[in-house]
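Good morning C.,

I know you're traveling, so I'll keep this short. The sequence:
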Amino acid sequence: MTPFVLPSNYPRFQRVRNFDELVAKPFGNGINALCWERTLAGDFAEVVGKLGADEGIATIDEARLQALPVSAAGRVAIDAMIEDQRRLRELGLDPVLNCIDGYPRDEAAEVVSTDVYSFHADRATIETDTWLCTYYGAPSEGLRNDEARRHVDIPETRARLLASYGGADDDSFLGYLKEHSYDLHYVPSPSARLFSFGVGHLWRIAVDYPGSPVPPCIHRAPATLPGQPPRLLLIS
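The tokens, ready to paste straight into the viewer:
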């Protein structure tokens, strides 16, 4: 399964022309992912190099960005990231910029892995969306809803989870699946065509919440490979 950038002719995905349209466009008619496709100026590689190699996930605040001794091209990159955060904060959101060398693995998973390397949907108790942009490094990957199946809907997997639960397949078991987020994780079909969120593009994707008019957008963090540079990721 080879990721490709910005799928065409996929009814759940839509490009927008600018930030205002990204904000205003409602999810509906099956559309659950919006992308402001853009090419950002600036030297993001320099910014990552100046940040240094922190193991795991390092949250980068504006003061740390502004203090970096970078070239003019590095400053352009910093200004672009700060501007994105400003826009999102004006919407009442709480964006976070992370420099990511790797995510924790769900080492204890016996049946279904629930770390971010697994294809999953985000969930909330109120109406909301997920916003994200990879400025540098390997970008997030998406999975078409029609080429995905929840792990909990696969009979063999459900039987193993039921055995681990130790009870009947009833409402309490459904609560158990939800409590452990097993119901949010998906397996791609053998012929699935993954897509890449690309670098520099700002995305708004649908979340699983009560009353959502569309199914959630399924995505995952890219695999962490030896020798790869850290990711610079904005998420809200």
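Safe travels,
E.
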